[in-house]
Each structure stands twice: as C-alpha cells, then as structure tokens.
Amino acid sequence: MEPLFADNLELICHRDHALAQNTGAIGWDQLNQATFLDTGITKALRARQDLGESKFDFPNITTLLAMLKSNLGVSVLPSLAIPKAAADLVSRPLIPTETSEIYLITRKDWTLSPAAEAMIETIIRETPQQVKKYALTLL
User: Fold this and answer.
1) What is the DSSP letter of 46?
2) Which of 82, 84, 101, 103 is nearest to 10 (CA)?
3) How far are the Cα atoms of 4, 14, 29, 48, 103 from residue 97, in angstroms, in the given order?
4) Could you tell me the CATH superfamily of domain 8-99?
5) Fewer CB within 10 Å: N-end or C-end of the chain?
C-alpha cells in the first residue's frame, strides 16, 4: 500500500440551493436542514454520521450528479470528483475539513507485468506534480 495524496471533501449542490449562496466554507451542521443525497463515499464519513439518515442513496456518481443538477438535495464529494464544467453545480469547502486518502494498492508477493510496473512508476513519479496542480495534500 503506497500512500499517494489526500483530497478534500466538499459540499456540492445546485447553484440555486440556499447553501450555494454562501461564498465561504460550510459547516457540517448546516447540512442538517438540507436533503442529503448519499453515496458510497459519504456513508462512512465521521462528520456525516451526525446528519442522520438520508432520503436517497445513489450507488454511482453519474446518477448522483443528475439528481444534484435537478436540485433534489446536496451531497459531499472529493474535490477531484466534482465536475468543474457543470455551470449548474456549486461546490464549497466544508469545516471541519475531512479528506479522502488515496493509495496505490498492489498484491503482496505478486509479480507485476512490465506494463503494470511502468504504470506504477509513472503514477508515483507524476503524483507530486498533480498534487501541486490540484492543491491536494501529499501523504
């Protein structure tokens, strides 16, 4: 298990949602009044546990984004998973900050193909530049 980086989790919602009107960070407690749309990413979050049960649970991000674009609620995603070109969606940082840690995992005592080894070397070599480019945290 090779630690790569940590990505900050952010609130994502429709631009017309009340929480989108704030320009600064959003406290997790402010999500109590919103319809929260869960994903596999959000269910295990420490801060998420205080929000109670969600009305909806979407197994894939494509469906979740469609529901958010329809202004059916709010959710939380890693910043890299938030589409930057979606003009109808807004993201805001959350306080306290939670992160999603990204690791490169390989099987122990497993022989990798030359192509897999080259890919892993490229990922490890390029990660610091991508961390800097996207303002992530190196682990």
Assistant:
1) T
2) 82
3) 19, 21, 13, 12, 19
4) Periplasmic binding protein-like II (3.40.190.10)
5) N
Token duo for residue 40: 């596999």
DSSP element (H, E) containing 91: strand 89-95
The CA distance from 90 to 65, in Å, is 11
Low-confidence ranges of the chain (pLDDT < 70): 43-50, 52
pLDDT for 23:
85
pLDDT digits (tens, 9 = 90+) for 29-53: 898 888 889 887 776 666 666 676 7
Of 29, 30, 6, the C-alpha closest to 20 is 30
Helices (H), the chain: 61-69, 114-133
